[in-house]
Amino acid sequence: MPDSFDQSRLRSAYIKAQEQLLQERTLQGWWEGGLSTSALATATAVVALEMVQRQLPNRDDQYQELITNGLRWLAEHQNDDGGWGDTVKSFSNISTSMLARAALEATGTTDKYASEVKQADAYIKRIGGVKAVIRRYGKDKTFSVPILTQCALADQVDWKQIPSLPFELACLPHRFYKTVKLPVVSYALPALIAIGQVRYHFARPWNPLTRIIRKLSRQRTLDKLVTLQPESGGFLEATPLTSFVTMSLAAMGQHEHPVVKKGVQFLVDSVRPDGSWPIDTNLATWVTTLSTNAVEGDVPEESRDTVLKFLLDQQYQTVHPYTNADPGGWAWTDLTGGVPDADDSPGAILAILNLNQTTNFKHDTEIRQSADLGVQWLLDIQNRDGGWPTFCKGWGALPFDRSSPDLTAHTLRALFRYQGTYADLWQSEADTRQLEKVENAIERGFGFLRRIQRTNGSWVPLWFGNQHADDEENPLYGTARVLAAWFELGRGEAVEAQRGLNWISNSQNESGGWSGQPGLPDSVEETALALEMLVVGNGSPEKIERGLDWLCSAVESERYRNPSPIGFYFAKLWYFERLYPLIFTVSALHRACHRFGISTSNR
C-alpha cells in the first residue's frame, strides 16, 4: 500500500459504503436498484396512450391524466438548448428531442407549450432533423425507424421519408433470422413486426409482389407478436419498445388487439409518481450479482441463502420465446420481460459460486447443476470470432449484435471460476470433454480480446459510453472490465494486460480521478473501476494513492452516491443506475482493503 495513505481512512470509507449498499437491499433481501427517469421513454409512452385514445369513442380519463402529467414532466425537463436528453443528466440529442416534440404535436398541446415548441423546433433544425436521426444510427434501423414512425404519427414527418421494414421475414423460423440479415437487431423483432406493419398501412410499397407478400403476412406476424409479448406486457420490460409497438398497432385501428391492451396496462403500471417513465422497469438481477460480487459473496449471513435462491430462481429453464435462447441463461431483471444475455449470465454464475463458498458449500449440488447449465449456455453462444455477443450467436451484421470485449471478459471470468471450482471433481469421460471445451473457449476468447485491443492499449465496451466524449465511447469501462479477466486468470504479465494497465494509469486526471477518456470530467463509477484495476494489477503506488484519496473523499463528502449517465440501454439510449456508483465504490475499496491486509469485517 502507498506508505503515506491512512489505512484507517480507507477502512472507514469502505465500511460506510458497504453499510449503505446493504441498506439498499429490498425487504426480501436482494437488490433492485433504481433506473433513471427518461424523457425518451416518457415521450413514447405519451404518444402510445394518445394513439389509443384516438380510437376510443370516449377518451379515457385515466389515460388522459397520464398523458397530461407526462407532457408536463417533459416541459419541465427541456434542456436550455431547446432539446431533450435521455435522462435528466444527459445532453440533448436529436432522437429524444424529436420524440418529445412529436409528443407535443400528437397531443394537440403546441399552443399550451408554445415556448417549448419554439425552442425544440430551433434545436431540431440546427441539428439536422430526419437526416440527423438516420445518420446517428447508420444502417441499424432498430431505433431510427421507430423514432421517425412516432414523428409520422404526429404528422411531423412524411411516411415516405421512413424506410420500410420487411416484417414478413418474421414469418420465417427463428433459425433463419441471422441468415436473412434483418435490418434490426436480434432483440427488436416486435418492432420489426409492429412498425413494419404501420409503415405498410400508411405507405404501401410500389412493388406489387412485395405488397402482396406483406398483405398475406399481416395476420401471421400479428399472431407471432402475441407469442413474443411477456406476461407483464412490456417487451424487454422497456417503455420505449413497448410504446412503439402499442402506438403502431393502435394507429392502424388495432386498439382492441391483446398486444395493445397488455402494452397499455404495462405503461399504466410503470408510470412514476412525477408523471415520467423509466427506460426499463429494473435491473434487479444485474445489480444483485454486481453487489454480491463486489464483496465476493460476503453478504450478511442472514441474507446469503435468500440472495442465492433469488439468483437460482432467475435462471431460465426453458427455451426463451423471444430470442429462442436455450435454457441456462440469466436476464438483467426478475420480471417476465427479460431476455437471457452474456453479461448477466456470467455475473450470475460468479455470484452463485461466490455464495457457494460463503455458505460453506451446503447448496453445492444445486449450485453445481445451475453452473453446469449456465456454462453450457455460454459455450453455445460463443461466436466464431471467439468473442461473446449479447443475446444471439451469429448475428454480427449490426453493432449491438456483435461480440464485445466487456461481455467476453465477463464470460471468461465465469468459465475460469467454474473450471477452478469443479475441475478436481470431474472424473468421467464426459467431464473431460467438458473441461476441454471450457479451456478451448477461454483461449478463443483471449484471442478475440487480443485482436480487438486498440493500439493505445484500451478496449471499447458495447453497453457503456461517456457523453462528454466526442465519439461517446468509454474505453475506461471497457479496459477495466477486460483487465479483470487477464488478472483473475493469472495472465496479468501478458503484454496486452500491461498495455491496458498502462493506459488506465496514464489516463488519470489531475484531480486523481478518472473519466471514460482522459481529460473529461471525473465520475465515481469510472474512478472506482480504474482504481480497482490498479490495485489488482499492482499498478503505480502514487497513482493508487491519488485514486484512493479521490474515492475516499467522495465517500466522506457523500459524492459517491451521485450516478452518471454512462450506461447504454440499446442503440445509444443513455441511462444511469442509482446503485452503480455505490456498487463500484464498494468493489474498489473492498479489493484495496484485501490487497493491503485491512479487515473488511464490520460484524
Automatic annotation (TrEMBL):
Entry's EC annotation: 4.2.1.129
GO BP field: triterpenoid biosynthetic process
Keyword Repeat: yes
Sequence ranges assigned to domain Squalene cyclase N-terminal in this UniProt record: 16-179
Domain Squalene cyclase C-terminal: 286-591
GO cellular component: lipid droplet
Gene name linked to the record: shc_2
Family: Belongs to the terpene cyclase/mutase family.
Pfam families reported for this sequence: SQHop_cyclase_C, SQHop_cyclase_N
Top EC group: lyase
Protein name: Squalene--hopene cyclase
GO molecular function: intramolecular transferase activity; lyase activity
Organism: Polystyrenella longa
